[in-house]
Amino acid sequence: MKASGTVLRQDKELLVFPLCSAIAAMAISATFAIPLLASGALDSLGEGQQPSAALAVVAFLFYLTQYFVVFFFNAALVGAASIRLEGGDPTVADGLRIARSRVVPILGYAAIAATIGLILRLIEERAGFIGRWIAGLLGIAFTFATFLTVPILVSRDVGPIDAIKESASLLKKTWGENIIGNGGIGLAFVLFYMVLGALGLLVVYVVAQTGSAALIVATLAICVLAFILLALIHSALQGVYAAALYRYATASNAGTAFPDALLSEAFRTRK
Known about the structure:
- The protein has helices at residues 2-10, 16-39, 43-46, 53-85, 92-101, 103-126, 128-145, 149-155, 160-175, 180-208, 213-251, 260-264.
- By secondary structure, the protein is mainly alpha-helical.
- It has one domain.
- Helix 4 (53-85) packs across helix 8, helix 8 crosses helix 9 (160-175) and helix 10 (180-208) runs antiparallel to helix 11 (213-251).
- The protein is globular.
- The two termini are 27 Å apart.
């Protein structure tokens, strides 16, 4: 996490990519949700009925656009981070240029992920508790297997299927089932979120004693912004780590920010 943070401190503009991704994802959610709610198309689901074919198509389009947005800006983040790891000085425009140059493979990868996401969703809905458990395990397995897909799409002129295969191959070859660095970053940020939440509740409670509505609203706004900033940092660090890990996996060198001894701990050959 500290090594990824070093890269992020050098290029704070990397935070722009997860911010744009979050804004675009919320806009897409509103674009799909508002018409569905207004038309009453979701009312039947609340009565336990199976979704219609038309609603399934809408769900697939929602998954597709959401995944595309996430992968596009993640590709921009990984591309910019890769420039820094190579000793360059990336800009936001550099990251967006890299993502635009790979827009077709990114869209293909989004279509694959959307299809799998919709299938897992249907399994959850039709198989009850066991279905949710199975879908959860399959979702985790897909996430691990495709962890390096975006760095591969950014770094090489390959299609989404080949990128997924290569990502899965690298996972099987070098890490087994454990991605130590990514899991460590995730665990660290769970603790950060908990600490920030506890501090936020304490501050809001103290401010509430003043009885000032304006001060309470301002405090809540600051807490929300702090959570947003922490989430952006979390996403940016994961993108930097993915870029570094792929670079190390293919070139055995991820740049001065990531010593070889540090990254080698993330690679554990399956025995």
